[in-house]
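Q: Here's a chain of 351 amino acids. Please give me its 3D structure as tokens.
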Amino acid sequence: MGEHPSPGPAVAACAEAERIEELEPEAEERLPAAPEDHWKVLFDQMSNKRSNSFRQAILQGNRRLSSKALLEEKGLSLSQRLIRHVAYETLPREIDRKWYYDSYTCCPPPWFMITVTLLEVAFFLYNGVSLGQFVLQVTHPRYLKNSLVYHPQLRAQVWRYLTYIFMHAGIEHLGLNVVLQLLVGVPLEMVHGATRIGLVYVAGVVAGSLAVSVADMTAPVVGSSGGVYALVSAHLANIVMNWSGMKCQFKLLRMAVALICMSMEFGRAVWLRFHPSAYPPCPHPSFVAHLGGVAVGITLGVVVLRNYEQRLQDQSLWWIFVAMYTVFVLFAVFWNIFAYTLLDLKLPPPP
């Protein structure tokens, strides 16, 4: 899928450019700049380094790459049209879209989001059969006894800060999360790769459970909303920041649909949190994990998605947000160790 009969100009130039260690300053000045990037001069000055192979390929292939807009290409196969569609859905610069279209081979495929989704569905079906309940599973008295759920009394079992994503409150909870992470996460992984998207997703998941342990200390946590909201909020923020450059069709409608789905899922979580619990005195799962995911998305996530093929270690904002995330994690760890005792908080009994 996505392979072309002959290597495109960017790929051919890339092979030669990998032998070049440095670009000449005058070549760097000739790099094309899209009009929509001019207002972000400050950020570009802070972090504008690309890999040498990418930049040299663009320089050498620019004449052919710029001769025709990607949308004007005719006679494309179904797989080629899909790749072009993904490029326009996720990338704000025409030069980046052409480079991605010319070099993408679907090897490796977007395995991370697909694997996570399949595992979440499999665990949900297993729990549904064992509990005999698929709608609002979280109201079942035995639901919290699962060793994957984050529970405040069992917060010392560190795997629970991550494994809670495989437990969902019910089919309505799972359905919205799966739809969002497939519609948004798979195209993003096709463009940015499993490492970057997995980093944003896992960071959102961990931030979600830690945020609950700090802000909603007596509540358990279930669901993958922390990771899903990190990806979706990063994507939406990237669209807003690059509004004039994003050429995806019906982008305003798409944003509205995504926001409506997120609002519905968040509203369901808030209602469930304050609904009378099926296993008092322990409340229903917290909604704060959603907010932790959004915070990761508009910080780390935006930096990851802002520039295609830009090296993260060369971006100043990347290190700033990594430092902020690290400080938050360390604070939450110490909070979990000392605050519960100092505050003399009465926690619900272990499940």
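Q: Can you summarize the key feature?
A: The radius of gyration is 23 Å.
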